[in-house]
Amino acid sequence: xxxxxxxxxxxxxxxxxxxxxxxxxxxxxxxxxxxxxxxxxxxxxxxxxxxxxxxxxxxxxxxxxxxxxxxxxxxxxxxxxxxxxxxxxxxxxxxxxxxxxxxxxxxxxxxxxxxxxxxxxxxxxxxxxxxxxxxxxxxxxxxxxxxxxxxxxxxxxxxxxxxxxxxxxxxxxxxxxxxxxxxxxxxxxxxxxxxxxxxxxxxxxxxxxxxxxxxxxxxxxxxxxxxxxxxxxxxxxxxxxxxxxxxxxxxxxxxxxxxxxxxxxxxxxxxxxxxxxxxxxxxxxxxxxxxxxxxxxxxxxxxxxxxxxxxxxxxxxxxxxxxxxxxxxxxxxxxxxxxxxxxxxxxxxxxxxxxxxxxxxxxxxxxxxxxxxxxxxxxxxxxxxxxxxxxxxxxxxxxxxxxxxxxxxxxxxxxxxxxxxxxxxxxxxxxxxxxxxxxxxxxxxxxxxxxxxxxxxxxxxxxxxxxxxxxxxxxxxxxxxxxxxxxxxxxxxxxxxxxxxxxxxxxxxxxxxxxxxxxxxxxxxxxxxxxxxxxxxxxxxxxxxxxxxxxxxxxxxxxxxxxxxxxxxxxxxxxxxxxxxxxxxxxxxxxxxxxxxxxxxxxxxxxxxxxxxxxxxxxxxxxxxxxxxxxxxxxxxxxxxxxxxxxxxxxxxxxxxxxxxxxxxxxxxxxxxxxxxxxxxxxxxxxxxxxxxxxxxxxxxxxxxxxxxxxxxxxxxxxxxxxxxxxxxxxxxxxxxxxxxxxxxxxxxxxxxxxxxxxxxxxxxxxxxxxxxxxxxxxxxxxxxxxxxxxxxxxxxxxxxxxxxxxxxxxxxxxxxxxxxxxxxxxxxxxxxxxxxxxxxxx
Length: 843
Hints:
alpha+beta; elongated
C-alpha cells in the first residue's frame, strides 16, 4: 500500500466533475489510484512513490478546470531582515509535503506560505524554520479544521443566499411582467408553466391595470433589462465554469445550465432586439426571460438547500473534532503551564481538573476520578480511573482531579485515529457507485446530443412555429438533465452511515467494507479476547511430584513461568505475570527468549531451560505430564486452560488459566442466529475447552486447536462456499482478519488503529457486530433507493423534457419547471441520506 494524500477539490458541481478530476489524477505520474468524492469534495490519492509532489497533483487538477482548497499562513521570524539564507529557508518550507508556495519578506521579517490544509502542520513549519538556523517570533498556531469548515460553509451559504434572493426577485418581476405577453402568446397554449400562471391573468388585470397598457416591445425591453443582471451576477458562475470546461475540453452540469439558459436568453434577446425577424415570418416574438430567471433561481435554491443539507452529513466527524480541548495544563520545570493541546508532548505530566476534557491519551499517575468515555465507547456510565489506568483524549473528567502522563499525542491519539478512519471511509466509493460513475462520465455529452436532436426534430417535423418548439425542447432537456443526483446518491449515504457508525462505536474503514458486509452469510469468532474477556486469570498452580514424593512449591513454579512470560504479550502470559505480582514473587531475568507461536514460550532462567507450553505441544514432543495430566483433564472439562511449566524437559508444574465469557456474547450470538447467519468459533484451545465456550454462548460449529498461522487457512476454506466475516481481537488474528471478506477487530481503550481489519469495534461489546450489519444493510438500502430515483428521474425527465407530453396533452414541459425539478432531485437524494442520522440498531 503506497502513501496516501487527500486533497480538497474546489469548483465541482456534479458527479461528472468528480469523474473528470478523478480521471486526470489517475493519469498523473506516480499515482497508483485516485478516488474523487463529489459529496465530500475530496480526492483520495494513493501514490506509487514517496517523491511525488503535491504541487504536481494540484497542477493536474487545475489542468481540467478545477482547483484545490488552499490556506495561507504568515509568521514572523526573528532577524530575517539581516539574514542571508532566505532562499534556503524558502526551499526548506517548500520541501514540506502540501506546501504550494513560500515567500520570505525581509522588509517585514515574515514568511508567507500557501499550503493544502490537512497535509502539513504548524509544528512542521516551525521545525523547518529552526533547521535553517532561524527563530520564530512566536509559535505558529495550528489551523482548526472545524473552524475552517464552518467559515467556508458560512461564506458559501451567504453568497448563494444573496444570489438566490436577486434571482428570485427578478423571477417574480419577470413572471408578473410576462403575463400580458403570455395572454396573446403561443406560449400559453403549449408551455406548461404559462398554463399554470394563466389563472393569474385576470387577477393582475384588476390589480395592476397599468401593466397591460405597456406595449409588448416595451415590456420585452424591461424584461431584458431585469434579466441581464441575473445572468451577469447570480448565474455568472455557471457560464464561467462552463467556459473553463470548454477550454479544458470537459463538460459538466455547468455546461448544461449555461447552454440551456444561454440559448433561452439568446432566443429572447433576438426576439426583443429584432422582433421583425419573427413577425415578418408570421411568428410571434415570444420571449423566455422569466424562464431564464426561474431556472437560475431554482438551481441556486437547490444548491443552497443542498449545501446546508450536505453540511449536516459530516456532523459526526465535526462533533468528534470538536471534542478536542483548546489547551492543556502541564507540569514542566516544577511549574504548571497552560499550553495549546498541540504542544503537549509524550512524557508530559498533564493535570486534569473536575469537569475538564482530557487533552491527549495517557496513563494516570496521581489521583483518581471518574471519566465519561461515551464518545469512545458509547457507554453513558462514567468509568473509575486510578493510577495505572489509561485515559483517552476527548473524554470528560468527572468530579475528581488527577495527573496523567501523556503516552500518545497529535495524530497518534485514539481520537485522531478515529477521525482518520471516518475520513478515509467517507472519502472512498462503494463498488455500487461504479455504474453511476460510468453514466456520469458520458452523461453530459449524451444529454447535449439528445437536446440537439430534440431541437432538430421539432424544428423539422414539429408543428408551427417549429423554431419555438425546438428551442423549448432543447433548453428544457439541457436544464432537467443533471448528473448531480447520480453523483450524490452513494457518497452522501456513505458519509452519514459511517458517521453514524462512529457515534455508535463502529468504525468502518471504507465504503467497500460497508457494501461487502451486506452479503455476509457466515461469521467466524475468535475465542480469546473476542467471545471471552481476553483477560484470563490464574485460578490454580499445581506442583509435580518429585522422586522423593514431595511436590514442587507453587510459588517456585509461578516465579519461573512469570520469568519466561515477561517477554510475551499473549493474554495468558499477562495473567501469569499479574498473578506473580499479586503474590509478591520475585521474577528472575530471562535470556534467549523464544515465542513458539501457538505452542508457548521458552527461555533461559538462571542455568535452566524453562518452557511454558500447551498440552498439545507437550504431546507432540512426547513429554509426560505424569499425575498432572488428570488434574489438567478435570480443569479442561470445566472450560479452563492448563499450561505446563517444563524445566530442562521435565514437567515441574501446572498453571490453570480461566477466561470469562463477555456478558454481551450470548445476546449478540442469539441475535445473529435469529438473523440466519452461520456461526463458527475458531480457537487454538483444546476441543473440549473451545467446545464448552461454544456451547455456553450458543455456537455449535467449533474449530479448535488451530494455530494462529492456520486460522487464515480455515477462513480461506470457508470462503470457498460462503461470504465470511471474521471477528477477532487483532492480536494473533491479523492474517485471518485480512483473509476474510470483512474483518472485524475488537479495539478497546486507545487501541483503535487496527490496520488488518475492515471494521473496528471501539468497545469489546459484540452487540456492535449486529449494529454494524444492520447499519450496512440500511445504508446500502438507502444508496439503492437514491440511485433508483436518480436514474428514474433522468429516464423519465429527459423524454418528457424533449416533448413526450405534447402528443397526449398538447403541452411542453417548461424550462422553468425543469429547473425546479433538477434542483429538487439532488436535494431529495441528500435528504434521503440524512435519514440515516436517526439509525438505531434494532433490538
